[in-house]
Structure formats: structure tokens, C-alpha cells
């Protein structure tokens, strides 16, 4: 295995001074506050323990987390993380989202068309290398370009020399740059998924709430050379479960947080970005619901998109609620004013960093100005153009141009080290549904027309004298990009093939690419580069004044959180830390067994065989955010006791400020999983594989000098 992780940088060597309050912190593995955990919980993770948990954790490239749970490649995540694959494997006659899926033998395990898993092997501090070409006289735009070029070259050299996926990760707004080296697994096969009705029991009404009664799980298996991968590191399955007050850890890939952002950046989110997103989500949810109501098949193919938009809508509503909280924003303003005042009294530091807060505020004014163009012309959002085929066309047009440039001068998403993952996406055999793509592209064009105006020159190019519905229908019905062989021919043909293509969707994307590039360049030069260079200065001031007291904001890279299994009080009512399987049946009865509170037939038939007191879901104070879905919940012995699948509504404010007063992370309990596998799904071989893994990870730790069973108990 790779060498032990180095320290982050000279800054993170300063793990001294007052630390974050409570159990706050999505901590870097190479800067984990071991002593803080020991002081509060009487247990200090060793480096061997940390390395083992890191190497047993995986990132799902579609936005989630997971873990290895057997030596034979078995991998564990949420149903909603695996749903894209489950839906892509389904057909009009076999809806695995609805019915569930279980491969009773390895021969029946179904390969996902487009899924990549990443295992973090090593981290290297490359801050000096990234900044080597940055000169004092450079503008933020020039400095940003120099950094992006250096990052691309570092990644290319790493990928060529190691064969790994290599990503330079920006931390602390650009004060620190780390090179993350990943082993990739691209042969990922579905093993087990429950029915949607129990994976998302309670539906959107219960989403981001607690108590919950969900079996939000999916098992995959990673393969190498056509055989199940043999894993040196995997997490064992707990035999005993957990108790109220137990210390737990969460290893996952939180997507993004804004705890270190300036007030002007938070105001941009509050006043511009989040309200706009909510408007878009509401419109798209409405068209998807109407589309789904027309037929069972429409409902099947739209299910994943509808769930994604509804989930995003509720999450962003929670984020916005946090930023409209006067007390939270007042604390942010006061903290910023205090740091600015401290800088003003230190002449040397003031001369070095000047006024980065004002520089970022000016960049936010630019971002407000270009926000509609970035959203609808550049398509820079989680669902660009809202259409799979339109997104493919954009990548084909862009890649042809970018690949002809030197690696360091390309847009970041087309650097050499990123191309293998892009090609896997472009050449995926996953089904594409033109009726759904037409619907979503038409809605996107309507939104663009409303935001930019019918007289906008780019809107006129997009619509070409037609209505949004007509324009979308023409380019989607006429395109041949749903044929993977056509995509490959265009991609491999380079610029000449792209320019010669008469495919209507390719013509559409070519017509707006210059306009999109212009607004992207303005964003890169006057927003992104400013946020990085000036944000790094603020970090420098924070470290200089306060020492290293908090982890960087989340970046969809591996972090380790910790906390306690613990209930809470809400509106004077005590909410217990755990629910049980019997509660799921009671919850259904209380809602008249009507969707989304209708248990699957398999659960109704198995009720008499179950121990209804078996724990199903539980809450903890572990610090999480979107992207942590699928993260294993681990006890101090390094055993899996649960899997994160949600947080309550109060936890959404953790995007900007953590508090364990009422916010909680929500997990599925491993005891409920075992009970369901054995007594509901007759999945005994799968349950046995998990049980057989019990003891193997502990043995590995013991054989390497770590004995978790003899660690100090709870205080």
C-alpha cells in the first residue's frame, strides 16, 4: 500500500489553540484532531486506524459516498446514491426501482453502465508547486490561470507516473493545494437494492425529517479483470450494534459547505443563487410530475430526475432558511468584522493582504451580473441544460477544441487527467429517453427566455425563430447522439468531425459555444480567480490570528467526522435516538397505508417473522452535509454500525454553521439491515457475506499494532 499521508502543510501543522466547538468538523484525514477526540470521548484513533478507515472508504462519482464491506469487493451505499444505476439497468418490463433487485449469484450481478468509484490512496501537499508560477505583479486573472496550468500539469504527471486518478484539490479558498491520488473502479455491478417504497418510505414529506423508517441501502461489487476485486481493506460488520451515547465516526465525501465564506458570498447565495435555484426546481418538478402522470412508463423514466429535483428543492430551502436566520447572519458579520479589525492593527499583515473582503465583494457584483448567462448559456449548474443529450453535445463540441490546446491552457474539466472519466461518461451505454430529454430541454429554454429576454441574441440563436417546445423537439428528435457509436465517431474525429457535423443538436451547441466561452472566461477571471486569490489571503489572516482551529470547507473529497449517538428535544418533545422496524408498520397505519407511506408487499408478508424491536434508523451529532449520503457510520473498533442517508431539517444550516443542539445526522442501523436481508428478502448469502467479514478488519488492525477492543471505554 502507499506510504503514510504527509502533513497537510505548514499551516495544518498548527493543530493548536482553541478548536471548533462541540463535534463540529469534516476533518481532513491528514489533519484529524485525535487529541480532541481523546479528551472528550476517551478514545484516540491511531494512524493505523485512520489509514484503514480511509482505505475502506469510497467515493461514488455521481455524488455520494460508500465503503467496502467484504474482502471480495462488496460495496455499501444508499439506494438514492445507487438509483441512477438501478434505473439504467431497468426496462419497461423490469422496473428495479419499483420491485428491487437481488443477484443470488455473482453471475447475476448486473454491471452499471456509467459508475466510477474512487478509493483515496495518498495525499500530497503541492501548494508550492501550484503557486510556483504566480508572481506578485500578476492580476487575480493571471494568477488564476497560472495556478490552473500548474494544477493540470501536476495531475498529468501524477496520472502518467502512477496510473491513478490524480486531482489537485483547492482547500481554504486557495491557501492550500493537495494532490489526491485515487484508485478507480469502473466495473461496478449491482448486487442488491430494496424496493423504492421502503428505501424512500415517507417520500418527500418525510425527507429531511426525523423520526424515520427507511431502508435506504444498496450493495454493489467492484470487479477487476472480470473477477471480484480482492480487497486488503474493508470494514467489518458490527455484531453488537450501538447504544445511546456511543462514539461514532462518519467517513465520507461531503459535497460543499460555506462556513468560511465571506458575508458578501453568503449574501449572493441568499439573495441570488438560492432563490433562482428554487424557482427552477419548482418549474421542473411541475413538468416532471405532469409528464409522469401520463403513463406508467413515463413515471418510470422520470423517477430519478423527479427525486433529484425534489431532494435539491428541499435541501436548498433548508440552506436558504439558514441564511435568512438573523442570528446566524449577525454572527457571520460579527466574526468577519472582528477579523478585519485584527488585520487593521497589524501593519505587516495589512500590507501583505490589503483588503480581500472588498475585492471578493466586488467579484460578487460581477457574479450577480452574469448569473443568468452562466446558468443558461454556459450551463454551469448541477443539471446543465437539464438534458442528458444536450450535455453530451456540449462536451463533444468543447472537447474537440480543448484537446487541441496545451494541457495547462484548457478548461479544467478537459485536462488530460480528467479525460478518462469524461470518456466513460460520453460512451456510457446507459439508456437515453428522447421524450424526457425533449421535455426538460424545452423547460430549460423557457427558463432561459424568461431570464434573459426573447430579444437576447443568444436566446435567438437557441430558438432560431421557434418556440422553446418546437426548438427542443427539433434538436432532440433529430439528433443521433443517443447512439454511442455516433458519439465515439465524433469524439475521435476531433475538430474537423465536430465542425462538419450536421446533427441538429451539435449545430445548436456550436452556435452558442463562443457566447458561452465568453461568459465562462469572465467568470473564471473576475469571480473564481478572485475568490481563490483573495480567499487565500483571508485564510492566511485567520491562521495568523487564531491558529488552525477548523477544517476547510467541504470539497467532495474524503473527510472524517465524529460525534455521539444522541436524541434531542424539539418543541418540548424528546425525540429518541433510534426507531425500530415495528415503527415502520405503525407509521404506515397512521397514514392509512397510502403512498408514500405504503410498505412494499415483501414487508407486509414478512411482518410475522420479524423482531419488530430491531433498530432501523438512528441519529447522531456527526457533522455531515450533502455528499455524505452512503457514508459508513463506524464505531471505535472500526466496525460498521450504520450508514448515513439523511439529516434532519435543522442539520441543513450546517452548510454555514454547525450546532448539535437539535441538528442530527440520520443513519440506517446495521441490525435492521441484517434483519431485513434474512427475513424479508431471503438474501441469506449476502447477509452471510457481511457476517463473515466480521472480525477480519479487527484482525487486520490487531496484526498491525492497533487493538480497538482494548481502547478506553466511554467516559
* Nearest-integer average pLDDT: 93
Task: Name the helicity range.
Answer: 40-55%
Sketch the major β-sheet.
Answer: 11 strands, antiparallel
Class from secondary-structure proportions: alpha+beta
C-alpha Rg, in Å?
25 Å
Number of DSSP strand runs: 22
Globular, elongated, flat, extended or rod-shaped: what is the shape? globular
Number of helices: 25
The fraction of residues in strands falls at 5-15%
**Separation, N- and C-terminal Cα atoms:** 35 Å
Poorly predicted runs are: 1-20, 705-715
Quickly describe the structure.
With 715 residues, the protein is of the alpha+beta class. It has 25 helices and 22 strands.
Description:
With 715 residues, the chain is of the alpha+beta class. The chain contains 25 helices and 22 strands. Strands 2, 3, 4, 5, 6, 7, 8, 9, 10, 11 and 12 form an 11-stranded antiparallel β-sheet that branches. α14 packs across α19. It is globular. The N terminus and C terminus are likely disordered.
